[in-house]
Amino acid sequence: MTQAQASSASSGSSGSSGASGSRSTGGLGRLIGVGLLLAGVVLLALGAYLGPYTYATSTPGKLTVETCTADYKHRSTSPSSSRKRTKTKWCYGTFTATDGSVKDLNAELRSDSLHQRGELIDALKTGETSYQQDSGWVGSIALGCAWWFGALIPLALGLLCTTTGFAFGGASDFNRAKQAVAPGLLSTVYTLIAVGIVGVALSFLVMFFV
């Protein structure tokens, strides 16, 4: 009789501990979810700012190339691997606004290729001393879309975490979240993630070809 009572007490204590651990994990998951939702909102805002807003508020013009250079940087992909070399092209020259309101003899911008002296590059003056190549409204909208589609991924994961308490704790945590998820929500999360990945890829393709 005494052994049965001890076993029952032990079982109750274990169940209470498991429930407490589940509540703790759920609270952490919801906190992570809120952070992911905020990250998604920030990405949406960055897409609007770096894409259409920047293009609409920039000064269009031409950069008359004086010279172009290529900067090489080496970075190691892993401690045991060889270093990878990246190449960044820069062009320098005189920027002249289309409406004649700005002329900068010492303009520089990141270029997609090395241009010859005297060539003209469509450019945008985006700040006091900052310039970028002008890819038109299509390019600016594609850039914004890349950020917006990318935002769908943290938004979808944030929705999952806040509603189920999923805290990226492995297979057991995911199975617990699947049991707690509302009907259709998991499919919605998968769909948003898939749309986000495909949308980012298509946006970069558009940016590459414009």
Automatic annotation (TrEMBL):
Disordered, as annotated region: 1-22
Protein name: DUF4190 domain-containing protein
Highest classification ranks of the organism: Bacteria, Bacillati, Actinomycetota, Actinomycetes, Kitasatosporales
Segments crossing the lipid bilayer: 31-50, 146-168, 189-209
Keywords: Membrane, Transmembrane, Transmembrane helix
Organism of derivation: Streptomyces nigra
